[in-house]
């Protein structure tokens, strides 16, 4: 596996290719100093053996400014090269990380953070983490971030560039982390997008499998085609939108011969491994139901704190509440329908046909007369006018996407300020779908927005546009063309971040919602 961790005080790029073989062999290449940006493939480095053991393999390799450290798999003891190793023999680590002149790790026995290196910053980082039980830990030049066992992302250490100011988030919202000199970045678990904070922070419009950071730039492995993209003020003369690095395709994990039946394999895994194995997907932990954390108070003047919040932002928060409620209700209804109708695989044989209810009209017409034993019942769809799925109402086809149509109607109500069915002075009763969808599709979103709303800012306008096009996808006539609840939540999250933060790089032009 290729691991690049460019940390250094002299704006150099340390390119490190390390192979942890089954024999426990660790190779340290000579470090080549290059002036950024790196736009071409470097030449192969001369390797030097620094560790060799058949019995005690190494794992969790980490690279800092001047040090290389790893954990002995059997004992959990951390050892370092060009750097002092931990002096406490009782420290057994789950994972370790290295920064500028310090290294830290998570202890096996209590999940606490312990640091070493002899510098002032490592002692301060350890003190600030205190008794937080941690699941993960990543170090930057002078700070470290990690996810606690409750799912909260916290950062400790130096805050000279705002790199400790983690944005408000849900529990377990972030997965992969990358830290530089004065910025921090994280991958959002639901949609793979990267959000950064601190000096020179940018938000990426690409989905990533993993990310790493240098002093003042960030690189990531894209999900779409496994290419490497880098961005930031220190990359390519400050190009912030990202440039593709001409590396060959980088695989997202090791090729293994063992079965990946538990969590599945990556698409095209066979071709990526050239027929020599498969790449297993990492298993996602079962997450608790998230609760929205209170927003961080802004550092503003007292007079500015009195002003009312943006109405557009409030409506997007309301949309989140509605999506959550609809999702819970849809799940309950699905379970009840499954149990009553006997369509669940494990109950199908146990449920009698006579106990399967049908929603019918009050009058039951005989198909062949009163003396016939066979009766024909005309099924009538039941639902709220204006919200009912046309596919269900006309064709009596009820799917898991039926509730998504009603959610699309609710999103249009939030945008237009009109009810699902309202009275138009010119044409009488009109549905909000017939009123808004044609105009939005023709580029006339501004003509249907609620006139009582304040004019949106640039970011809010982009967020409103994203919500509008999400609503249109929810209102597709065929259920299979509508997005899932997870897709809807992911796009509403994008809209919310656009409202809360600086000018974003996510546009409706990059909107991609799965149809299955």
UniProtKB/TrEMBL annotation:
<keyword id="KW-0472">Membrane</keyword>
<dbReference type="Pfam" id="PF13540">
    <property type="entry name" value="RCC1_2"/>
</dbReference>
<dbReference type="InterPro" id="IPR011009">
    <property type="entry name" value="Kinase-like_dom_sf"/>
</dbReference>
<dbReference type="InterPro" id="IPR009091">
    <property type="entry name" value="RCC1/BLIP-II"/>
</dbReference>
<keyword id="KW-1133">Transmembrane helix</keyword>
<keyword id="KW-0812">Transmembrane</keyword>
<feature type="transmembrane region" description="Helical">
    <location>
        <begin position="316"/>
        <end position="347"/>
    </location>
</feature>
<protein>
    <recommendedName>
        <fullName>Protein kinase domain-containing protein</fullName>
    </recommendedName>
</protein>
């Amino acid at each position: 596996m290729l691991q690049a961790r460019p940390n250094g005080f002299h704006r150099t790029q340390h390119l490190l290719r390390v192979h942890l073989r089954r024999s426990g062999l660790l190779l340290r290449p000579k470090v080549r100093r290059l002036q950024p940006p790196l736009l071409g493939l470097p030449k192969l480095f001369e390797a030097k053996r620094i560790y060799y053991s058949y019995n005690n393999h190494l794992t969790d390799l980490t690279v800092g400014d001047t040090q290389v450290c790893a954990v002995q798999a059997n004992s959990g003891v951390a050892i370092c090269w060009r750097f002092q190793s931990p002096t406490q023999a009782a420290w057994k680590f789950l994972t370790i990380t290295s920064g500028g002149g310090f290294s830290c790790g998570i202890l096996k026995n209590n999940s606490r953070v312990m640091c070493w290196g002899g510098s002032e910053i490592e002692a301060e980082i350890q003190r600030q983490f205190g008794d937080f039980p941690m699941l993960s830990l990543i170090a930057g030049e002078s700070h470290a971030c990690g996810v606690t066992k409750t799912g909260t992302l916290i950062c400790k250490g130096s805050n000279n560039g705002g790199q400790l100011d983690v944005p408000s988030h849900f529990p377990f919202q972030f997965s992969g982390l990358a830290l530089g000199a004065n910025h921090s970045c994280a991958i959002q678990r639901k949609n793979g997008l990267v959000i950064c904070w601190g000096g020179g922070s940018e938000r990426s419009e690409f989905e990533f499998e993993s990310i790493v950071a240098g002093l003042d730039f960030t690189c990531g492995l894209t999900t779409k085609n496994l290419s490497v993209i880098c961005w930031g003020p220190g990359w390519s003369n400050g190009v912030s939108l990202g440039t593709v690095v001409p590396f060959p395709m980088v695989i997202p994990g090791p090729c293994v011969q063992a079965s990946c039946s538990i969590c599945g394999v990556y698409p095209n895994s066979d071709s990526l491994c050239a027929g020599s194995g498969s790449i297993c997907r990492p298993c996602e932990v079962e997450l608790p139901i998230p609760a929205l954390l209170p927003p961080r108070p802004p550092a503003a003047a007292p007079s500015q704190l009195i002003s009312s919040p943006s109405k557009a932002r409030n409506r997007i928060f309301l949309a989140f509440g509605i999506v959550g409620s609809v999702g819970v209700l849809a799940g309950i209804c699905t379970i009840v329908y499954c149990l009553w109708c006997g369509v669940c695989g494990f109950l199908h044989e146990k449920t009698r046909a006579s106990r399967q209810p049908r929603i019918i009209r009050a009058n039951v017409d005989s198909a062949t007369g009163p003396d016939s034993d066979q009766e024909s019942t005309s099924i009538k769809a039941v639902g709220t006018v204006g919200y009912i799925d046309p596919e269900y109402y006309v064709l009596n086809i009820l799917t898991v996407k039926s509730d998504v149509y009603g959610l699309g109607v609710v999103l249009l109500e939030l945008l237009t300020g009109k009810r699902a069915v309202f009275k138009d002075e010119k044409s009488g009763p009109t549905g909000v779908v017939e009123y808004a969808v044609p105009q939005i599709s023709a580029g006339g979103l501004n003509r249907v927005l609620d006139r009582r709303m304040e004019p949106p800012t640039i970011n809010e306008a982009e967020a409103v546009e994203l919500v509008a096009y999400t609503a249109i996808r929810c209102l597709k006539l065929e259920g299979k063309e509508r997005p899932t609840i997870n897709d809807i939540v992911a796009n509403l999250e994008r809209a919310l971040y656009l409202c809360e933060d600086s000018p974003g790089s996510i546009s409706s032009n990059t909107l991609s919602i799965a149809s299955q």
